[in-house]
């Protein structure tokens, strides 16, 4: 099984950025523990702060991978184009968020991804990614 985790803007700052919301672990450290927990899955990881690069990666993997776990960060609430890219592919996408976006600012309650995703997991910290992986292996 091939799963790619795609992270959007500012998620490269995990471990440094607002640890009271996002925790103190870097994503690279978390990714290492996740791949060790699921050794039978071929994981890849991609992060970009650039919307077009995220869309390009979704299109690149969207017909050959078994799953995409996407945390589009703030683009979740602004990018019709990322939502359209997910709609255009056959690979199922799970939208994840580390924080509970509904407990934050009102503008974060809107997602242009959710309607085209297989499911949404939010508010469980980095464990949200693990829950998304589990949804693919059940």
UniProtKB/TrEMBL annotation:
GO process annotations (BP): amino acid biosynthetic process; aromatic amino acid family biosynthetic process; chorismate biosynthetic process; quinate catabolic process
EC number: 4.2.1.10
Keywords for the protein's UniProt record, in alphabetical order: Amino-acid biosynthesis, Aromatic amino acid biosynthesis, Lyase
Signal peptide: none
Keyword hit for rRNA processing: no
InterPro entries linked to this entry: DHquinase_II, DHquinase_II_CS, DHquinase_II_sf
Pathway participation: Metabolic intermediate biosynthesis; chorismate biosynthesis; chorismate from D-erythrose 4-phosphate and phosphoenolpyruvate: step 3/7
Protein role: Catalyzes a trans-dehydration via an enolate intermediate.
Family, per entry: Belongs to the type-II 3-dehydroquinase family.
Assembly and oligomerization: Homododecamer.
UniProt protein name: 3-dehydroquinate dehydratase
Naturally occurring in which organism (per UniProt): Flavobacterium crassostreae
Designated gene of the protein: aroQ
